[in-house]
Recover the amino acids of this structure.
């Protein structure tokens, strides 16, 4: 038999269906040709001994802000996907609040072209829907948008929210594409009113920022969008669900038969709002990190199936923009967001170590399910023969501390996870059969990553 390109052996292969010890994967021409026991795999031009570690389908992060075009001083396709490779992430989906925003086909194509020129891992991009571009939804679909996003509340980039009538029309138009419409789900009137009130009262500490965007703003927006989706038969998605109250609203929508999916982020499962008192504006993000009760409710909802996906909302900003030199300064002078591509796998593996979820459940939420939600499965998020040879090798027992954020690969590295200790880490990242990260180094070439076509394209 002719040797294949690559064989990875001597690992435990884990998918949502279970785990196989002393197994591996064989790759030819960028696709998987065999998955099985190590001693049954074919000869290969290159063999990787995984040394007993765990191999899983490549991690899919369908919520990152790579900032290109227009804001490359914070991050770009190259630096964001370099961080992704180092974090064990094989596919990312970029957000549309760039400069210009991704609101028309030519802007989408420019973002794809930039990615093709410099990305280390595979990628997609969402298109934004505003009051001005409802008529462009079919063209954005045709141009290859992974899905669509509406910002309901004020956020970085100040993308204006459509009216409720326009949201209903957007749902009807997106439904015709067969793709999914996601929301930054915060009631803009509530958060704008509360922030103005807090500013007038001189409430300007980091914790005040969190309280200016109350849970009710998230829960109400989720309930309203689910009601709209029920009316229009649209498939909808709730990004970055931060609270148990919000996740419970998602669960009620699922129980009513609405096609609603949701994601949460590692920081909402790891921290409580006390991190804003401990680390200040470094931990400022929107929606904000919630109190201990809401985190406990979020975990229960997660365990009960309300949350489909894990994603980071990776949002790089410079030290100056975050106010790192004075992290407890006036919170209204800081900006929301922080990086997460290199800590998401360690956070989730730490939860596995704690017994909060199994390896199989982690893989489902962090690889398989996001690929399904965004139309990339089974090419992404599976280890099926004939699919893209994307996989992540992790050491689930490796204990380590992020002692210095400057070791991260993003252009901007502010993160509240600096100083946190984890159990588990990605050790090797493979994208379409090419090793892009191993032994602590990004070894893949800039520009190797390519646009992911969804099953609807």
């Amino acid at each position: 038999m002719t040797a294949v390109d690559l064989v990875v052996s001597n690992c435990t292969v884990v998918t949502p269906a279970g785990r196989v010890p002393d197994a591996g994967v064989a790759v030819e021409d960028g696709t998987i040709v065999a998955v099985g026991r190590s001693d049954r795999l074919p000869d290969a031009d290159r063999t990787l001994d995984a040394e007993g570690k765990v191999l899983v389908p490549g991690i899919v992060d369908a919520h990152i802000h790579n900032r290109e075009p227009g804001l490359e001083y914070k991050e770009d396709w190259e630096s964001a996907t370099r961080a992704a490779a180092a974090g064990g992430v094989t596919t990312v989906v970029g957000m549309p609040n760039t400069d210009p925003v991704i609101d028309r086909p030519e802007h989408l194509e420019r973002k794809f072209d930039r990615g093709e020129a410099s990305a280390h891992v595979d990628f997609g991009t969402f298109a934004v829907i505003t009051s001005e571009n409802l008529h462009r939804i079919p063209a954005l679909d045709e141009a290859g948008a992974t899905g669509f996003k509406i910002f309901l509340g004020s956020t970085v980039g100040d993308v204006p929210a459509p009216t409720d009538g326009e949201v209903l029309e957007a749902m009807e138009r997106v439904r015709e594409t067969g793709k999914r419409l996601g929301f930054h789900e915060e009631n803009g009137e509530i958060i704008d009113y509360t922030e103005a009130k807090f500013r007038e009262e001189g409430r300007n500490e980091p914790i005040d920022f969190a309280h200016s965007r109350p849970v009710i703003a998230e829960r109400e927006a989720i309930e309203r969008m689910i009601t709209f989706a029920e009316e229009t038969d649209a498939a909808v998605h709730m990004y970055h669900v931060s609270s148990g109250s919000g996740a419970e609203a998602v669960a009620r929508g699922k129980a009513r038969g609405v096609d609603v999916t949701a994601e949460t982020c590692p920081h909402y499962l790891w921290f409580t709002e006390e991190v804003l008192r401990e680390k200040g504006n470094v931990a400022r993000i929107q929606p904000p990190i919630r109190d201990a009760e809401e985190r406990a409710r979020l975990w229960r909802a997660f365990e009960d199936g309300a949350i489909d996906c894990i994603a980071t909302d990776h949002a790089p900003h410079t030290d100056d923009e975050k106010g790192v030199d004075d992290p407890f300064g006036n919170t209204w002078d800081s900006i929301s967001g922080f990086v997460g591509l290199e800590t998401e796998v360690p956070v989730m593996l730490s939860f596995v170590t704690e017994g909060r979820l199994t390896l199989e459940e982690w893989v489902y939420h962090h690889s398989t399910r996001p690929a399904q939600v965004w139309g990339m499965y089974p090419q992404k998020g599976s280890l099926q023969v004939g699919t893209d040879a994307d996989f992540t090798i992790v050491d689930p027992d490796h204990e380590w501390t992020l002692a210095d954020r400057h070791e991260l690969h993003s252009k901007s590295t502010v993160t509240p996870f600096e100083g946190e200790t984890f159990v588990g880490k990605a050790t090797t990242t493979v994208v379409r059969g090419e090793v892009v990260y191993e032994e602590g180094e990004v070894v893949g070439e800039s520009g190797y990553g390519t646009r992911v076509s969804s099953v609807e394209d």
About this structure: The two ends are 36 Å apart (CA to CA). Residues 58-373 form a domain with the TIM Barrel fold (CATH 3.20.20.140). The chain has a mean pLDDT of 97. The chain is about 30% helix and 25% strand.
